[in-house]
Amino acid sequence: MSRPRTPPGPAPSPHRSPPRTARGTAPWTAFGGDLHLDLGERRAAGAGLRAALEDALREAVQDGRLAPDTRLPSSRALGEDLGIARNTVVEAYGQLTAEGWLSSRRGSGTTVAERAAPRPAARPVEVRAGRRPTGRHDLLAGRPDLSLFPRSAWLASARRALAVAPHEAFDYGSPLGRIELRRALAGYLARVRGVRTDPDRLLICSGFGQGLGLLAAALRGRGAGRIAVEGYGLPPQRDTLRAAGLGLAPLPLDCSGARTDLLAELSGAGEGAGEGAGGRLGAVLLTPAHQFPTGAALAADRRAAAVRWARGHDGYVIEDDYDGEFRYDRQPLGAMQALDPDRVVYGGTAAKSLAPGLRLAWLALPDELVEPVAALKEAADTMSPVTDQLTFAELITSGRYDRHVRRCRLHYRRRRDLLVAALAERAPRVRVTGIAAGLHAVLELPPGSLPEAELMDRARAAGLVLTGLGWYLAGRNAAPDAAPALVVGYATPPDHAFPAALDALCEVLRTA
């Protein structure tokens, strides 16, 4: 990606006025804030300088660009910026003050008057915040309890990181990300998840979704036409893979995870297996530590089968380790990547352990994928934001991140225990499936219960925000005989709201 370059020629004098466009626009002013005033069109229409300035300021106040109490630049500064006489600005300020648009007090300068209310927008536009539905009881899976975000630790880490960061840290840098974070993550992932990598093979990305898109594009560039996915998974991830031009080949699931023993069969099936584009099966996307959303852990023989397939078919395993730090009944399983770092791409994220709004994730890449994925990252957005990378690196190296994760693990385990106990007492026919891990649980209803669609209608009527298991289905043939089930995110509500959410959930399930 090109970098901004300084044009040839003499350096500008520090005493010269700021540059102006050909239409008389002042792009910035000496009082320290942006003030865009376009006098060119008004002058072209025959207005005098003073009248053009008055009209431009009046319009800026009317449409809300200059809010009440906004301090305007001094008459001398604005005159210099616009290339007009100071007296013209003084007269314009005086006229607008007399009209009530501006207010002038000795020693305080000129400000926008309180009584000047902005003109209402002609067409109000409602902007939805993402695709997240709303309700009284938020039990959507995939979100942490945001009240646990370690504000004090993050602030202390940010102060320390910014104090010691070199000046070059804030320049354009490597698309792989800041070396401080890559070093910290290499050590942390080796210690906590058993990942075998080094800083030069780690890439920092803006969420795992971006990382998956980069991988999909790189695989497509290497000749892959299809990718195997688990029979249940996140629809947005499947959309990302399709957008890169990859066809999807769903793998059936059972209590031992995805049927990776079928990968060789899918490779030989070619265009007849899966949806979308035909061609070579280039990779498989798995959540081996805690299948999302069913909750199964991928059995050891199936891990080995996936790696064996990748070695024999010039393919890759993409390991989405979205909540690997949160296992409650035993030590978490180590990362699958350790079985073969040259064939398994490890993907991790801070979305569950810290907050999704940070948009911090990482990929541990095989040697052959480092260069193509880094090139795609640079083309997409040059690199991920620097200050959060530096802060996260300090959070890890200081030990604050480990302490925070331990605190969260205890908190979420208690939440899951409360959910299981409440269901056992008040809806005993409902079965909690999967291992004791992560931030969500699948609640499976017995035969003869309401259809899943009707169950979801009742949940919505009770103010519950959650999803049915069917929403995650990768294809009609992936799970033809699935029982109705709900996917419940028990981590999402803050502590004060969790009991009421549990009450509403149990009441819906009791009568299902």
Chain-wise SSE layout:
Layout: H1 40-44, H2 49-62, H3 75-82, H4 86-99, E1 102-105, E2 109-112, E3 137-138, H5 151-164, H6 179-193, E4 202-205, H7 208-221, E5 224-230, H8 235-243, E6 247-251, E7 253-254, E8 257-258, H9 263-269, E9 280-286, H10 300-312, E10 316-320, E11 344-349, E12 361-364, H11 367-381, H12 386-397, H13 400-426, E13 431-433, E14 441-444, H14 452-461, E15 464-465, E16 467-468, E17 485-488, H15 498-510
Parallel strand pairs: 3-15, 5-6, 5-9, 9-10, 10-11
Antiparallel strand pairs: 1-2, 4-12, 7-8, 11-12, 13-14, 14-17, 16-17
Could you walk me through the main structural features you see in this protein, from its secondary elements to its overall organization?
- Helix content is 37%, strand content 13%.
- By secondary structure, it is of the alpha/beta class.
- A hairpin with a 3-residue loop joins strand 1 (102-105) and strand 2.
- It is globular.
